[in-house]
Amino acid sequence: MKAAGLQRIFPAMIAVVLCCLSLSAFSQVKALPMQTHLAEPTYPRVSGLSPKAAEDRVNALLVEREKQDRSSRKECLKSGPHASYDESIRTTYLSSRLLSLDVRASWDGCSAYPNDNLPNPLTVDLNQGKEIDWPLFFRPGFLQAREGQSSPLLRLYLRHVKLDGECLDVVKEPGMNFLFWLDSKKGLIAVPSLPHVVQACAEEAEIPFAEIKDAIRDPQIRADLLAASSQAVPATTGKTLP
Question: I need a surface site. Which of 97, 119, 191, 242 has the fewest CB within 10 A?
């Protein structure tokens, strides 16, 4: 075979090998159990990450969050015989870089007012073993309002929800903060973080990844989200607990 032909073939062969290695590494990353709705909050544990130190950091973070939620449940139930606390945890996105959990809690009889299906999501950078810092996840300007204009995020959010006039005024308040998580089937889930008195206005928006691709800083994460990897887990955000 001529040298020119080899020069063309070898790079292609190397690309194929690297691709296969990458897919193989990804296929080993697991988060189990993928869904829980137990008496005590139970978070998944990650396996298959490399290096092992990264896996240990992620699982330490998950254990700590589990302890916090179990402590909240314990304190709630101490309030009296009629107190109740319920929590569900679902893995809605998993890649070689990110783990996203849709966490919902309901409680009654242990605070000034009951809360129903309140989201408290968690998205973890699997490389760093840290919770995602969303202002750093997105490019500058995506979350911030500009003079005389709503933020790009808020404009996207309003495109995907139907709000009445009163709720629209609430959500459009300057400096509105959002909760986020990732869903492999539905995209970026965005929910306004609102006080209890207007909690009914906190509609969930399902924003397809294609609509936020230009706002994501990391090119590899952007590619993973758009690819809808074969390892994506069944997605559900749900308005109510099962």
Answer: 242
pLDDT tens per residue, range 13-53: 444 333 333 433 445 899 999 999 999 999 999 999 999 99
HSE toward the beta carbon, residue 113, CA cutoff 13 A: 8
First to last CA, the chain: 63
* Residue 123, token pair as written in the block: 């998205």
Greatest CA span in the chain, whole angstroms? Answer: 83
Q: Which of 178, 167, 187, 175 is nearest to 150 (CA)?
A: 175
C-alpha 39/C-alpha 26 separation (Å) is 32
What one-character DSSP code corresponds to residue 235? P
Q: Is-contact 224 96, C-beta < 8 A?
A: yes
- 187 closest CA partner among 205, 201, 214, 163: 205
Q: Return the structure tokens found at 32.
A: 């189990």
